[in-house]
Amino acid sequence: MMSNLYFVSIAIIFSFSSNFAVASERESDSAPTTVNCRYDKGYIDKLKTPLKDLQSLAVEVGQQICVSSLNVLPNESIPISKQLNSFAAQAKKELDGLFPTIQFDGMSSISEDWYQMVTSENNDYRNFSLIEATPITSGVPPRAKEIEFKLYSDSQSLVTIEMGEEQKKHCNSENSTKNTTSAGACLSTFDQWRYAVSPFQALYTDRILKDNGKKISKLQSQWKRFVEESRYQTELDVWATTVWYGDQFQQLQLSGPPSSQLFLLHPMLVFEHLPDAEKGERDDVSIAVEWFGVNWWTKGFGVSVTSVYNDRKDQPAVGTGATIHIKNKYSVGYVYRNNGDDSIFFNLDLMEWLGDKENKYKKYKAYFN
User: How many Cβ atoms are within 10 Å of 308's Cβ, its own excluded?
Assistant: First the structure.
């Protein structure tokens, strides 16, 4: 009789949870808020350059910057990684090689200023800029006899270089197509570098700063609420949740938190009460594991299949039942044992009280890229 009652209760709980899930999904937005961190189709193909290795580094770094730019946590910042430093060093080396100091006096200072700007630990990435090259014309008819190279930064680095035959000869040696003017030749040479480097800041500029201000604010608010209210999850729980939500977390994009949390082999300590046990053994701390569970954290309700273990003298050590989670912090469950000594248990998740809340977000952030 108790066995039948147990299985009927499990069926009722999960039937209710399924209906609850459908209702919750209907109340939520039809699609999660996301910010795409992939380049538009054909964007890279349009940037013709022989510096393919440098361009590949720029693409990797650009995507890394984009998916790291949500800034949910108080002290969070875009990491200055070895990958970014390596890219900046390679870009500086290529620019110095294209415009050696002996023919282009002052270019090395511009490239150094750019390198220092990109790798500065204090840079918040809101002032990224590339070096710009502008021809300066004079005479009648007007001809470009100089090129102004400028880096917009705190110091606004600028150098003006006169274009003569020596510069024309060098720049034409760097190009497959020959230019008839010194300025034209050197501008074409500079474009090799510009097209190779520009992908590293294009995504951040276009997707984060220009087009998605409201989306970014919404995502930040959603994650901050998730950090404060959701249940604590292990690495395995987070993995299961991201697999379940698939496209939301397995792409190069910024995304909001999942609407529900999945739990898989989740360990717990519970306070268990066996009313039929001998006096002195009725109440005890037991080990428990959630085999599988789901928690609708925005609603403060969850359910899971749970087993409890406690080595008592006259009762089976293991019992299995169902757990209901309330307000993302409290849990109550019912456990069936085959001798009829069923029990109830309560759980106050210590990780919710003692754990680092910021880790909730950090675990999901790892899946953005």
Answer: 22
- Domain encompassing residue 275: 2-29+231-365
Handedness of CA 245, 250, 252, 257 (dihedral sign): positive
| DSSP H or E run through 133 | strand 132-138
What pTM was computed for the model?
A: 0.72
Instruction: Please tell me the chain's helix, strand, coil percentages from 3-state DSSP, rounded to the nearest 5.
Output: 45, 25, 35
φ, ψ at 153 (rounded to 5°): -145, -165
Of the three residues 155, 179, 210, the one that is the final residue of a domain is 210
Per this entry, what is the length of the chain? 369
CB 328 within 8 A of CB 348: no
Confirm if 325 and 13 have CB atoms less than 8 A apart.
Answer: no
| 81 shares its domain with 186 | yes
pLDDT in tens, 261-309: 999 999 988 998 887 767 766 788 889 999 999 999 999 999 999 999 9
With respect to residue 224, please indicate whether it lies within any of the assigned structural domains. no
